[in-house]
Amino acid sequence: MAILLAGGAGYIGTHTAVEFLNAGYDVVIADNLYNSKAEAVRRVEKITGKAVSFYQIDVCDKAALQKLFSEQKIDTVVHFAGMKAVGESVAKPLMYYRNNLGATLTLLEVMKEFGCKRFVFSSSATVYGVQNPAPFCETMPRGECSNPYGWTKWMIEQFLMDVCVSDPEFSAVLLRYFNPIGAHESGLIGEDPQGVPNNIFPYITQVAVGRRPLLTVFGDDYDTPDGTCIRDYIHVVDLAKGHVAAVPYAEAHKGAEVINLGTGKGTSVLEIVHAFEHVNGVKVPHAIGPRRPGDIAVNYSSADKAEQLLGWKAERDIEDMCRDGYHWQTMNPMGYAEE
Ligand code: WQD
Q1: CA distance 161 to 157
Q2: Any idea what the Cα angle at residue 203 is, between residues 293 and 218, rounded to 5°?
Q3: Which of 100, 218, 221, 298 to mutate for ligand 1's pocket (most ligand atoms within 8 Å of CB)?
């Protein structure tokens, strides 16, 4: 029996593949390499010393997915396959809805055809919307998303809840990620965004290695202790382990369950910049700029439910995230591109 990681060649998928392999599972990755590299899968094999079955297919391609399911005995699907750039989703909403919703529908249809009834979904704290106050707790109603990317997560959560109502044997664990950063401690896999990073952490690491001159801090006039926004940064290896913990839970429980994957702690933009400089002994030149439209001041998780249901909690702190993320970037200044 194997775990299928749909979109498993990406940043979170590769780290999750390592943790599943280390826990003794067989891993199958399906990825169209739209936003990832085959080299990342080879690095997963190098870290673990184990083989991965890799299918370079688009999860929207039903025939290709049916072929995969007929060749592999898939027990559980972990679904990361999707586009994730917030700004791009505002400019190209139809592309986001077509891809993110279409991939999920195809996966669910093929799972139904092959009698596979366990699903772990890569959701996002973005579904809490702008109305809910932090800490975000799973009992809160979902809010209004501010962009199509967020709405795709919101809608896919709804698909899964509806599938669980229609089929009492189906289990879906909806993992709401906060802000995953850092890299595997080996420095062999890490985040490798295309073009100018949208997210703060890869921006910081690229400034630290001299790939970009300056980090702009988006606003220092928020109602927070130092005026900069607060987020719940979580080490990507901790996040990956949360997926491994979700599988026995899905085996033992039917129905849909929403679970936050965060640390429960908030860190400001300036705190993370200073922690990065301190732990790595490097300068991260930065300047204060205007606020970025759509940002909220404070966003962090309530992390209790994951500990209660999955027996999982984040163990790595901001210093670990900064050290491991810088290690990856110094070993791979241009990401996977040099290979
Ligand atoms: C974090 C903080 C910025 C860049 C987004 C998506 C979310 C999820 C994760 C994933 C904010 C500040 C950023 C920079 C800065 N999506 N910042 N200078 O916005 O919390 O979440 O990514 O696929 O759905 O919305 O993360 O890393 O973009 O920003 O000052 O150059 O860093 O203003 O306060 P965010 P982020």
Answers
A1: 6
A2: 30
A3: 218
Q: State yes or no: is 300 an active-site residue.
A: no
- Per residue in 217-264, pLDDT tens? 999 999 999 999 999 999 999 999 999 999 999 999 999 999 999 999
- Pocket probe for ligand 1: among 224, 292, 298, 321, the residue whose CB has the most ligand atoms within 8 Å is 292
Whether residue 200 has its Cβ less than 6 Å from ligand 1: yes
Rounded Cα distance between 256 and 120, Å, is 10
Per residue in 278-326, pLDDT tens? 999 999 999 999 999 989 999 999 999 999 999 999 999 999 999 999 9
Ligand 1 atom, smallest distance to 218 CA: 30
Helix then strand count (H, E) for the chain reads 12, 13
Contacts of 63 (CB under 8 A, 6+ apart): none
The neighbour count for residue 253, using CB atoms within 10 Å, is: 12
How much distance in Å is there from the Cα of 257 to the middle of ligand 1? 26
